[in-house]
Automatic annotation (TrEMBL):
Protein's name according to its UniProt entry: shikimate dehydrogenase (NADP(+))
Keyword NADP: yes
Domain of life: Eukaryota
Region span, Disordered: 1-71
Species name: Aegilops tauschii subsp. strangulata
Record field: compositional bias (Basic and acidic residues): 45-57
């Protein structure tokens, strides 16, 4: 077993204060305008004179990953610490990087189905498939492995036979397991995974018989937490000491900031040319699976389909390729995302990633499942984390976390968009109110067929149900446009509070049922009533709806809520929350990029995919 790779433990940690070299200066450099995505290189890595051991070692020509751009800026404060340690090594620009591979785990119970999964993974565009032997029912190595590894194969194979004590399903002794893994090597498996706890034993068992073209992945899985950076560094050194060709460390996130420590290790390994798979499991670790190409991870796993994940919160390979464009993610890719809790249901990644792609931006948009907003923003503090959408429950905290807040967003008391300026300052905006109010104005104008520049809300009685973030946005926006605003809310004290702020009366929801001071009123629901799955609920009876000329519903799943359906039946002009969603997202896109939003494309994506 060759032991060429440098170890983190070998690093002169005392150099923490050493001056930073060129690649590190970027930490403090303004990001500048967003760059259009660089086109993939036309020439192969060999033609470009870049040695590419990863691709050459295992992949058939069509699987050869292109070379990557090299140096990348640091992205967390924690990373800055580690990167200062590595100041003595040559700048990363000198280091050739291979593309992060996409591996699909094949987890079927029968060998024939597993082979079909591998073929399906190849059709999806995966780079390799992980054969999870421990998943096979009645697995007989000498009978099943020759079939599973028969050549020609559609994809390179990573063979894993995970024992129960490391999160797998194999319950027997080590020896038969080792024999199966050795047989897989002899049959030409490109990668074999062995757990750190038994790596030395396995290597002894192999007694030097590992084929040259098979790479040994030595893995460690922590299903409880993500250790400190120091502990991760020590784990890395332990794995390297086994003689592993590739290090694999999988931990578990208890909060999203845990992932920064894994990024830190990836960045370090990339500098040292140590191939590493570094992933953080569960929903708070999700970004590790999407952003590892930015930080130099050797591979990321994507499931064949939902329900076939081999680890908690593994995305599908199709989403990694089609939604997150991981093939385009590199060191210079800017990171945007939606901060919320929960956030997994959000359609914003689909929308923004496709919009970024349409204008050729080197940027990715991910869901950030955040518990503590201030901690998140101070951890992911580099200019590379360039902008955020903010949703429940962080919109109000976002006002406090920003260095500057747009005056209307401050009045509303809610920020749904955060931009990191070149000087690092965070600026907060609210695009909800512009999105909602312009949607309602246009909805009314469409029925009036006038070209007046005066807002059709001016002078109208505008009833807002709800006093939360969206309620405040609608109330302030309507007031700005000259409407007379009334607030109705379940918690009456909150209705009063908002009413006082905007100078309008407050109602209880019961009072609202019989509220009919005049004709032609406008109603805006800003509560979640009627939202999927509670689609039969509605905030106001059909009888009461007869008093309204225009009805807007912030809820957009389903597109036509019961409120809107009944309002339309009563003859009101109805405006869907989907229109608000599209417009607030377009506003965010413009803040993120400084470019006009691709209006029809974003509209089309929302209608097609949400
Ligand atoms: P929020 O700050 O939590 O406020 C929720 C409001 O709804 C509060 O006034 C709350 O009343 C009221 N409410 C909640 N459940 C209720 C119930 N069962 N009965 C009566 N009132 C209830 O939330 P938000 O950010 O304003 O979002 C509210 C809704 O707007 C959500 O459905 C969200 O998806 C939607 N929204 C849509 C868009 C879009 O682009 N279309 C944008 C933003 C928000 P209490 O004060 O009594 O708790």
């Amino acid at each position: 077993m060759k032991r060429k790779k440098k170890r983190l433990a070998d690093l002169p940690c005392s150099n923490a204060g050493a001056p930073r070299q060129s690649h590190q200066v970027q930490l403090h450099q303004p990001p500048g305008p967003l760059k259009k995505q660089e086109l993939p290189p036309a020439a192969s890595s060999k033609e470009r004179g870049i040695h590419h051991p990863r691709a050459e070692a295992h992949a058939p020509p069509s699987h050869q990953p292109p070379p990557r751009r090299a140096a990348h800026p640091l992205t967390t404060t924690a990373m800055a610490a580690v990167m200062s340690v590595s100041a003595v090594v040559p700048p990363a620009a000198a280091v050739a990087r291979a593309r992060t591979l996409l591996c699909v785990p094949a987890t079927a119970r029968a060998p024939r189905e597993m082979a079909a999964e591998v073929a399906a993974a190849a059709a999806l565009g995966a780079d390799l498939a992980e054969l999870r032997l421990d998943r096979l029912a009645g697995f007989a190595p000498r009978r099943d492995l020759p079939a599973l590894l028969a050549k020609p194969r559609t994809l390179p194979a990573l063979v894993t036979y995970r024992p129960k004590w490391e999160g797998g399903e194999y319950e027997g002794d080590d020896e038969p397991r080792f024999e199966a893994l050795q047989l897989a090597m002899e049959l030409g498996a490109e990668y074999v995974d062995i757990e750190l706890k038994v790596a030395d034993k396995f290597i002894k068992f192999m007694s030097g018989k590992k084929p040259e073209n098979c790479k040994l992945i030595v893995s460690s899985h922590n299903y409880d937490n993500t250790p400190s950076a120091e502990e991760l560094a020590s784990l890395l050194a332990q794995i390297q000491a086994t003689g592993a060709d590739i290090v694999k460390i999988a931990t578990t996130a208890t909060e999203i900031v845990d992932v920064s420590r894994m990024f830190q290790i990836l960045v370090h390994c990339q500098e040292k040319q140590v191939p590493i798979i570094g992933l953080v499991m569960n929903d708070r670790g999700f970004i590790s699976r999407v952003l590892c190409p930015k930080f130099g991870g050797y591979l990321t796993f994507g499931s064949l389909e939902k329900g076939k994940e081999s680890a908690p919160s593994q995305p599908t390979a199709a989403d990694l390729i089609n939604v997150y464009n991981i093939r385009q993610i590199g060191p210079d890719t800017k990171v945007f995302g939606i901060i919320g809790n929960p956030v997994g249901h959000s359609k914003s990644p689909i929308l923004h990633n496709e919009a970024f792609r349409s204008v050729g931006l080197n940027a990715v948009y991910v869901p950030f499942l955040v518990d503590d907003l201030a901690k998140f923003l101070s951890t992911y503090s580099s200019p590379d984390f360039a902008g955020f959408s903010c949703t429940i429950p962080h919109k109000e905290a976002a006002v406090r976390c920003c260095d500057e807040v747009d005056p209307i967003a401050r009045d509303i008391g809610a920020v749904n968009t955060i931009i990191r300026k070149p000087d690092g300052k965070l600026v907060g905006y609210n695009t909800d109110y512009v999105g909602a109010i312009s949607a309602i104005e246009d909805g009314i104008r469409a029925t009036q067929q006038t070209h007046s520049t005066v807002s059709p809300l001016a002078g109208r009685l505008f009833v807002v149900i709800g006093a939360g973030g969206a309620g405040k946005a609608l109330a302030y926006g309507a007031k700005e446009k000259g409407a007379r605003v009334v607030i109705a809310n379940r918690t009456f004290a909150r209705a009063q509070e908002l009413g006082n702020l905007i100078g309008g009366p407050a109602l209880t929801l019961t009072e609202l049922e019989n509220y009919h001071p005049e004709e032609g009123m406008i109603l805006a629901n800003t509560t979640a009533i009627g939202m999927h799955p509670n689609v039969n609920e509605t905030p106001l009876s059909k009888q009461a709806l007869k008093s309204y000329a225009v009805v807007f519903d912030a809820v957009y799943t389903p597109k036509e809520t019961r409120l809107l359906r009944e309002a339309a039946e009563c003859g009101a002009t109805v405006v869907s929350g989907l229109e608000m969603f599209i417009r607030q997202a377009m506003g965010q896109f413009e803040h993120f990029t400084g470019m006009p939003a691709p209006d029809s494309l974003m509209r089309d994506i929302v209608l097609r995919k949400t």
